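User: Hey, quick favor. My workstation is busy. Could you predict this chain's structure for me?
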Amino acid sequence: MQQQLFHSAKKLSKLNKTNPSILLINYSTIIQKRNLLWVPKDEVIKKGYKTPIPEKDIPKEVNYTGPETLRVAFCLERLPRLANDIHPLEKEMSELQKNNMNYYSKHKWLDFTEYYEEWLKIKKKQENQKGAKKEGPDVHIKVPDPQEMTEKQRMEYEKSQGKGYMTESTDYWLKNWKPQRRFTKDDFNDNRKSINRQLENRLYLIFKDKETGKWLFPHTIRKNPHTMRSAAQEFFTKTMSNRVHGHFIGYAPTAHYVNPNNPLDMTFFYRVMYIGGVPPFKALAPQFSDHAWVTRHQFDDYEFIDEEYKDVIFHMLYDGMQPISG
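Assistant: No problem, here it is.
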């Protein structure tokens, strides 16, 4: 790192005709100003940064002395592992489009190539007949609709698609592919401490506070010189003890909650996308007595700080139009 900085400073010194060591000091100072945004300050001092950051992109220290108590909380969410079931409205629209297509195309063949081959057979058969009309605008060749297939025949038909147009390995994979199960053992046992459940929905990690006995998202008080996001990131790193890899979604908080008993006490929520790792639940035992991976529709099964808190996080974690499950 030091050598890279010196080479960069040496190039700048040729342009500005200054001492490269002075530029090196200034360059290092600029990099060190990018503190407390992605990693804790102690780690910055020990390891430094691998890539230089433009000075305009370096966040400045925040010194807020207002009367409000600003808290930051992170909402760790696991994204769906499987595609969601088709919504009834989407299924109805798909059937409508399919019927319209069959009506205007005047045939019900799923593969146009097979339809065209059948059309050619009928055309040649008509041409071989005596007294057949020549091809023209008045001649229309009607191809009969294919036989209705059962569900098993339809699956076999879909597996055979692409034969002869792909590699042997791809053909083998298409023929022998089996879909993953949508439900796991933890779904049937309703094991909400497991992340291996509700594969088609988003899961959110909530904790039960040991003092109050209420469920919540982990939060802490923002302190100077942190920005709101840097405070949330450092708190997430300390809480998860670097054992969970997460990605913060955006720089602004997703929602905020105002304590009804103290309007100056505010909590700002940041959504964190779960990428991998196992949270240190044993290390968090002194602070939290329980935890659960739940969907937003399961919030009603838990007692949060108050109804306002539950309403804020429920609308904050809107996950699209999908059927309510579990």
